[in-house]
Each structure stands twice: as structure tokens, then as C-alpha cells.
Amino acid sequence: MGLGLDLSGVTPDGNRLRPGQYACVIKNARIEMSKANDRMLSIELHDKGGRGMITDRLNIFHRNPKPREIALKQLKKLLQVSGYPNPDLFDEVSHLNGLSVGVNIVEGEPWTNAQGEVKRGGGELDPWNGYFRLMPGVEVLGPKPETAAPADQRLKTAHSHTRQLYAQQTGGSDAFDDDIPDFGR
User: Fold this and answer.
1) Tell me, what's the pLDDT at 185?
2) Most buried one in 54, 156, 157, 175, CB count within 10 A?
3) Does 60 reside within a domain?
4) Longest dimension (CA), the chain
5) Cα distance between residue 5 and residue 109, in whole Å
6) Looking at the structure, do residues 41 and 96 belong to the same domain, yes or no?
């Protein structure tokens, strides 16, 4: 028996971004209703490298002033770093579409499935430092490696990435004038 489902107008969801840093473009910014029946701003952030997307939902209309204040601060940061024409006056949701922004994705909280198994949390926007300004000519790092290296290796890698970003931004040497050890690079 054939179902005859017409899926020509259906677009499958993309992969959810894993923890890391990404250069994203905003698509499909809109106002939605939350589970608590409050309006909220929903923003799809699509990786320019095609590795996936993530949705940020900002409770800018929440009835409780504290969540609303947090959401408004996150929105202001997004407007500032994305090049929105006037970050002090947000008047049209559709004006977000097409703007570019850097995003920091972190691993979410572990969760328990119906069988009682604890699973790793998925990627989610860093709640404290989710957005950053993209710098021309500076490569965004992308996903973090799946396997965790020992702490000293992670520190060495982070320091190396910082040096590379500094060199790209300044167009020169990766030499810092600091007291941080070079870890034998």
C-alpha cells in the first residue's frame, strides 16, 4: 500500500553543531511561543562551513524579569557583534536574517534516556559567551576534537591556537610579549 506522501516542500534538519567555535549566518529569525506560552525570539545559526546548525531561543518577552533581562543582554551582544545597524534599537526580527556572527558551542548537561542510561549532552550555545565578532581573515576553529587530551596537552593546544589567532589578527609574528611559557613549541 503506497502512502503517497509529498515531501517536496520538506527540508530535513541539519546536523546539530558540536562543541567548538563556528562562523555562522543567521537564518529564519522569528517570534515563537514558548512552552510557558510566552513569546520568544528564535534564531537559527547555520555554520558557513556546512557542518550543521543550532537554534538559539531568547526569552525577551518572558513574564519574569530575570530571564527577560538575561535574554535581552544576550540579544544586545548578538546585535553588537553581528554588525546590526543600531544595537540600541531592535525593531525588526527579519533584519537579523543574513547577518554573520561567531558562536561558541559547549557540551550540554548529561541526560538520562527512558532506559535509565546517562547520555552525553548535545551541543548548545555557551550561555555566558555565546557570540563573538568575526574578524576578517581569521579562521574560526570549528568543532573540538572528540577525544579529550590530558590537561597539559589541552593547555598547549589552546596556547598554540591563541598564538595563531594573534598572528592572523596582527598580520605578523605569533610571539607574545608575556610571561606564559611556550610549552616547547
Assistant:
1) 46
2) 54
3) yes
4) 73
5) 37
6) yes
Which residues on neighbouring strands pair with residue 124, listed in sequence order? 106
**CATH number of 61's domain:** 2.40.50
Using DSSP's 3-state secondary structure scheme, residue 146 falls into: coil
Kind and range of the H or E element at 164? helix 151-170
Asked whether residue 88 falls in the same domain as residue 132, the answer is yes
Residue span of the structural domain in which 155 resides: 147-185
Q: Does a structural domain hold residue 26?
A: yes
Question: What are the per-10-residue average pLDDT scores of the chain (185 residues)?
Answer: 72 77 94 89 93 93 92 95 92 94 92 88 88 83 60 48 57 54 51
Angle, vertex CA 56, rays to CA 100 and CA 49, nearest 5: 40
Evaluate whether residue 83 is within a structural domain: yes
CB contact at 8 A, 45 and 55: yes
Q: Are residues 136 and 46 in the same domain?
A: yes
Q: Which residues pair with 42 in a beta bridge?
A: 30, 57
What is the amino acid identity at position 33?
Answer: M
Q: What is the pTM of this model?
A: 0.68
Q: What is the pLDDT of residue 182?
A: 54
3 CB burial (10 A radius; 0-12, 13-18, 19+): exposed
Please state, in angstroms and rounded to a whole number, the distance separating the CA atoms of residues 82 and 163. Answer: 24
